[in-house]
Amino acid sequence: xxxxxxxxxxxxxxxxxxxxxxxxxxxxxxxxxxxxxxxxxxxxxxxxxxxxxxxxxxxxxxxxxxxxxxxxxxxxxxxxxxxxxxxxxxxxxxxxxxxxxxxxxxxxxxxxxxxxxxxxxxxxxxxxxxxxxxxxxxxxxxxxxxxxxxxxxxxxxxxxxxxxxxxxxxxxxxxxxxxxxxxxxxxxxxxxxxxxxxxxxxxxxxxxxxxxxxxxxxxxxxxxxxxxxxxxxxxxxxxxxxxxxxxxxxxxxxxxxxxxxxxxxxxxxxxxxxxxxxxxxxxxxxxxxxxxxxxxx
Length: 297
Prior knowledge:
By secondary structure, this protein is α/β, with parallel strands linked by helices. 56% of the residues lie in helices and 8% in strands. The protein has helices spanning 3-16, 20-27, 31-39, 46-56, 60-63, 86-99, 102-114, 119-139, 145-164, 188-199, 213-223, 238-252, 272-276, 285-293, and strands at 175-179, 203-208, 227-231, 258-262, 280-281. It has a 5-stranded parallel β-sheet with strand order 2-1-3-4-5, with helices on both faces. Helix 13 links the parallel strand 4 (258-262) and strand 5. The termini are far apart.
């Protein structure tokens, strides 16, 4: 029985806010095995011991009680979060989503944020990738639509919590109006972008879906945005985007804001701007930031 190992594993696991269940998933073992590690009944093999050390940013010698040095500098920022890689965090989050364990998913994201993972990383590298996996499962018929909707709502709740814990930067001169055209309901990607821009000080007006073109024009008149951003996920909604863009340009003429469109609906499009009448095609937060900095604005 190695009491030093069992006590130290339990201590560093608890300090990171990681449950036995979480650690078991990351190690690829049962929760009972982790419990036995912490009771001193079992000792992990060399490979598992090495992964535990990597996960928590400690030396194997420390785990085994051979010295009192708690941490070592691996040069890997992923150690901040208590997980060996982004893939580990994503795998655990997907497992929690599919199990419907919203509480544990919130705890996981909260711990990652507290450990120094940036909100951009949490949004785009963790939550964004998780939603891509959820979408792929739904398309394959492996996930019922009710669960896809439930996970989407959970992600929106998580985003609100993450955003509320972030400090807003100084005011930016940029103004953006964001929406999804017609009945397009897939908005998480666009909301991620607008959340980050708002935290960076942008003046964001998000008006969502099913807004008539005439009402969008009134919003443009009142808010005077530099950019209008459309997000289109379903190809069947491209026509709605094109018709709305045409209405905006016809009404405002040369004084129309710059319009950017993006989304998975355009994956097979050879010329998105020609197809929709938009000024720019963008697929990322960085695309919008670059457009905002152009002299044309």
